[in-house]
Structures are given as C-alpha cells and as structure tokens.
Design a protein that fits this description.
Order of helices and strands: EHEEEEHEEH
Largest sheet: 4 strands, mixed
CATH topology: Hypothetical Protein Aq_1857, Chain: A
Strand order of the largest sheet: 3-2-5-4
CATH class: Mainly Beta
Distance between the termini: 17 Å
C-alpha cells in the first residue's frame, strides 16, 4: 500500500439511502454522535444544519457527503476504519433516515500496522 486508507467507507445499502435522502433534502452531512441520547449513532443532517467547528474532524466523504466526528471521540477511533451501513429499525430521532424505517449504523475494523503508519505519514492521525 502506498497511500493512506480511507477512514470512512460506505456499503451499497448506505449509498442507496444517502441518494434517496439527498433527493428529498438536498446535500447532506454526517456527524458520528458520541452522545447520550442516540448512543454512538451516525447522524444524517441536511448539510449545514449541524454546525461543525474546530473540535470536529472531517474523516472523509461517502457519496460526496462529508462525515465528521468530534475530536475527543476521534482520539478513541483513529485506529479504526468506519464503515457506514444501514439496518432495519428506528435511528436517532434527529437523523433524516428516521421516517424510512431503517437507520444508519457504523461498523468498524482496526487498521493494520502498515495502514496506521501510512495514516501517520499523511498526518491524518
């Protein structure tokens, strides 16, 4: 591997739901919640509705949709690749997919030592 791996990916099911939600709501954004109300759910918002700041990290984009996480939570997750997926059930009450009968779910895998080194060299962790 010669370049750093993506820090966030999405499954085909997530891509399909993102496209459907974008058709209804316009450009979207994600913020990986670490809070009390919705556990650690990936929350989907109309782009710009959730204010991000200096304490948020842009992990990457899925389907041209930015995916953020708080810097403090990123410190715990920086050695893992997040994989955005969709499962049946109700999601976070503020996330756009709520009325769809499905919810976004973050799966993860730990980066290999080689991938971690490439992320360090790219100054992404």
């Amino acid at each position: 591997m010669t370049e750093a791996p993506e820090q966030v990916l999405s499954t085909p099911a997530a891509d399909e739901l993102i496209a459907r939600l974008a058709a209804l709501h316009g450009p979207l954004m994600f913020h990986q919640s670490g809070g009390c109300c919705d556990g650690s759910s990936p929350m989907c918002y109309p782009r710009g509705e959730f204010l991000v700041g200096d304490q948020d990290v842009l992990l990457g984009k899925v389907c041209r949709t930015p995916f953020y996480m708080s810097r403090s939570q990123f410190e715990y997750w920086k050695h893992t690749q997040l994989i955005l997926d969709v499962v049946s059930g109700r999601g976070g009450m503020f996330s756009l997919e709520g009325p769809e009968g499905v919810r976004f779910l973050t799966r993860s895998r730990v980066f290999t030592p080689d991938e971690i080194e490439h992320l360090r060299q790219a100054r992404r962790i």
